[in-house]
Amino acid sequence: MSSISSDSSASAVASNSFILIPHTVTDLQDFTENHPTYLVSVYEEPERAASLWRERLRRNPYGDEGYVALEHYGRDLIAGDLWDHVGGVWSNLVAAIGSFLEDGSAETSFPGQPAPILLRRVRGSTLLTINTETSVVDPATFFPGVLNEAERYFKWVAGNIGENVSGPLQEIARIREGLRDSPWRTGA
Length: 188
Fold this sequence. Notes:
The chain has 188 residues and is of the alpha+beta class. Helix content is 40%, strand content 24%.
């Protein structure tokens, strides 16, 4: 797979967003083992990714089918077989953080499949579950890092696709503001 990259202000969190090369994946194991055959990074090949997006839009109501690679302190958080609508994955991760900050827990899923995204507190730790994988995350670094990476993706969409992403960007800003006041921001 192409390298994961990050905004330097979010060094604990790294991500890369990929657009799926058209044609349905017929061998999930091959897809998982050979991501470069199927995916194009929006950051490493922005023009090619935008072209694939537009090509898909000619036949489908959406163009952002692909994969989000997400790491926290070097640990992969999203399994390689979980491709979906990239913007939906980012939006649902952002929404989960918002719910966690308000309620101390969150539950959502991938937009096009029943793969859960859960955030919860257990014995003083914050746990993130994506599908069947659970990881301990540090809210003080993970939450701002995910917000930064989601913002980076939506800015790519605005700049390269021309879609209006004011809604997701406003939600990111709202949640970022809430980070300052939430008792859950540090995991304490």
